[in-house]
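writing this on my phone so excuse typos. first protein, seq and then structure
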Amino acid sequence: MATTSEEKTTKKKRRQPCDVCRRRKTGCYGLEDRCNTCVEFNLECTRFNGPMKRRTQSHVDALESRLQRSEELANELRSQLLKSHADCPRCTTDSPCPALKKSIQDKSSGLSNLHFSRPSKFDISDPLDGLSASLHIMRRTMASLHLPPAALKDSENFAIDLDELYLSKGSFIGKSSGATALNSLMALMNKQPPNGLHPSPAQRADVHDWESHSWCSNNLRPIHWRWRPWLFTPTRDNDFTFPSESLLTDLVDLYFTHENIYLPLLHRPTFERGIAEGLHLRDEGFAVTVLLVCAIGSRWSADAGKENSGLACGREWFEQVPPIQRGLMAPPTLYDLQYYCLAVSFLDGCSPPQTCWSLIGIGLRLAEDLGAHLRTVSTDTPSAESELYKRAFSVLVYWERVISAEMGRTCALQYDDFDIDPLLEVDDEYWEHPSHPFKQPPGRPSQIAFFNALLRLNHILGWCLVSIYSSSKKLAVLSINGPWEDHAVPELVSVLETWRARIPPHLRWDPLREDPVFFDQSVALHAAHSHVQILIHRVKLQKAKVPSSLPSFEVCTAAARTCAYMVTVQRHRSGGLAFPMNLRPVFTSAIIILLNIWSTKRSKAASSRNENTDHVNNCIDVIRLCSERWQNAAILGDILTELAGREVVPFHEKAERSDVNGPTELNCFGNGMYSDVVGLPFPQDNATREDDLMSVMMGFPSDVWATYISTLNATV
C-alpha cells in the first residue's frame, strides 16, 4: 500500500502539448524537450502559444446583458410601430384583438375604462410582446378593407409635379428616387429641366431640341442621350389575321357574356366602338387586345372552326400575340396591362400555373411603371381612362393572389404596397350617359359590385398567405414563439365573417334568383369564400397526424359541401354550361370531401359516406364540363377520378377527348408515374389515404405539370 501511495505522489503532471501538436490536434508524446512528431518531421518543438483561454463568467454575463438590452430595444421599437398604427385614422375598429386588449389591461393598471374605438384614448407606450403587436397590426390592416379610402396628402401627389422628370413619358417615380432631390434643386435654381431626363421614343429623333435648353446647352452630349435604336425594335410585325366579321362579333359577345362579368377588364361600348371604327386595323395595341378577346371567347364558341375546336380553341388568335412582343425600351401603355390580364385569363386553362405567375409579375411591374398602383388627385368627375387603368391593375392583383395561393408562393405586391380606389360600381352602359355620366340608376344593382366584393376577399386571401403560410423566419423576426396559427386563424376567421356579412343583397346565395348574371356571380363569390375558408383552416390540418379529429376539419368539410351544392345547382340551371371561374374551389372542395369519406369509412358511417360520395361525383361532373376546352380542367378531373377510386366513387362516363386519337383514359397515378407528387407511391388498387390527399391538396411541384402534359402529348 505504501508503494501505491508513493506512486501517486510522484506521478508526473500531464505535459503541455507543443504548438505543432496543438494545431494538428494530436497527442504530444516523447521526450520533454522534443516530441515524437517534431522529431519525425524535423520540426522545432516550441511551446510559445499557451492553451486557449476559457470564457470567464464575466464574459458570459456581458453577453447576457447585451442580449437583454437588445430585447428591450426590440420591444420599444414594436411599441412605436404599434402606436403608429393606432394613431392612423384609417385603422380604427370597435373590437381590437383580445390578446392586445388583455396585454394593455395588464400593463396599464391605472386606466380603468378603456375605449378601444378611439386608439388615441389609451396609452400603448409600454412595450408589447411580438404576438400582441402582430395580432393588432393584422386586425387593423384587415379592418381597413371595409373603410373608405383616406384623403391624399400633398406629399403623395409629388409624382404629378414631376412629369418632366420621368424616365420616359408616363413612367412613375416614387419618393425614394433621386429625382425628388433633383426637382428640389431645380426649384431652388429656378430652372426648368428638359422634357425628361431620358428622351422618350418621340424625342430621340431630334436632339437639337434638347440642346436649346438654357440649363444644359453647354453640357448636353447628344451621343449619350440617344438610346440605341435596336432597343426599340419590336420582336414581331403587325401582320395580324382577324376572324370574319360575323365570327368576330360572336366571339366578342361570348367574352363579355362569360368572362368580363367576373373580371371586368374592358369597357364594352368603347371596345365595340373601336372595332366598328376599324381601330384594330391601324392600332397595334388595340389589335392585340382584340385577338386575345377572340382567343378567350373561343372557349365558349360552337362555331370556331375545326382548327379552333377542343383544346386547340383560341390557338389561332393567341399565337399571333406571344408574350414577348415589344421592344425592351418601349414605354408601357394601357394596352400592355390589358394584354397581360387577357393572356393570363387564356393561359390559365391550358398551361402550367408558373407560366401565368411569371406573366402576372411582368404585368404588375409595368403597372407600377405607369403609376397605376397609386391613386391620383381626386376629381369630381371620373374618366374612362383612369377607370380602365384601375380595372387592369385590380385584375392583375386578383390573378396574382389566386395563382400565388395555388403555387404556395409569395405575392409580389402586398396589401400595403398599393393604394387604389375600388372600381366604380357603374355598369358599362352608364359610363357615357349624356346627362348623368358614371351614375348607376337608383335601385339597380351594378354588376361591378361582384368584383369589388371578390377583390376584398382576395385581399384576405393575400393576408392569409402572408400571416399563416409565410416562412418561419418572419415569426423569428417578430419574436413570436409558440403556435402562431392558434392566434392568427381566429383573426382571419373573424375578418372573413365580417366580409360575408357585407355581401350586397343581390349577391347573396339564392337558388331561385331570376337574374342569371347575378346568380352566376353569387355562385362564384360564395365558391371563392369557401375556398378561402378552407385555406385558412387547412394550415392546422397539415400539421396533424389525424386531420379528421380537429374542429378545423369539420369547418373545411362544411365549406366544401356548401361549395359542391352551389355549383351543382348552377350546373342544373345552366344546362351544362362550363364555369371555369369555379375550378379551383371545386377541386379543393372535392379533395376535402374525399378526406372526409376515408375518415367515415374507417368509422363505418355509411350514410354520411354516401352523401359525401354524391358531392364528389357532382364536383367531378362540374369539372368535366370544362375539360373539353380547358386542359387544366381535364388534368384536375383525372386526378380526382384516380384519387376517388372505383370502390369509393363510381366512375361516370368519361368525357370524350378533343383528339379522337388520344387515349380514352389516362392513369396518371396508378402506375406510380407521379408518386413524387404526393410523396408516397399510390396503391395499385385505386385506394388512397388521408396523407396522400393532404399532399395533393398542398399543390404540385412546377415540373409535374410539364411532365404530365409532355406525357399526354406523347401518347397522342
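second protein below, same order as before
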Amino acid sequence: MNRRKALKNLGLSLGTITLSPAVLSLLHSCKSDLDWNPVFFSSDHVNIVAELSDLIIPSGDNIPGSKELNLVKFIDLYIHNVSNKKDQDLLKKSTNAFLRNCLTKSTKNNFEKLDRNDLESSLKYFFKTKADDHSNWRQAYNKNKD
C-alpha cells in the first residue's frame, strides 16, 4: 500500500472518529426538556422555527416528525456550534425577513399571533411558487446577504 494513501486514510478515519462524538453529543442533547434555553434563536423565534420544521418534516403513521424528534433544539445547537458568524447573521436576517413577510400577509401585528396557516402560506410563496415568482424572494435573499 502506498504510504501517502495510508496516511490520508488514517487522517480521514481520525477525523471521522473526532467528528462523530461531537455530532452525537449534539443529537443526544436534543432530548425533550422543558427548561431548555435556545442559544442561537431568540425565544420568540423558537416556537415559529419548530412549527416551520414540522410543516417541512411532518409526522406520519410510523415516522416521527420534527416536533416529536425535537429538531428545533438540534437546529439551534447546530447553527450555534457549526455555522460561522457570517452564515449565522445571514440566517437571522433571512428568518426576520421571512417572519416580516408572514406578518404582512396575515395582517397580524405580533410574531406570537402567527399560526400554522400563516406560516404555511409563506412557505408556499417562497418554495412552491412558479419559477417566474422566484425573482421576488431572490431579491429579498440577496438584500439580506450583503
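The chain has a mean pLDDT of 77. thats all i got for now
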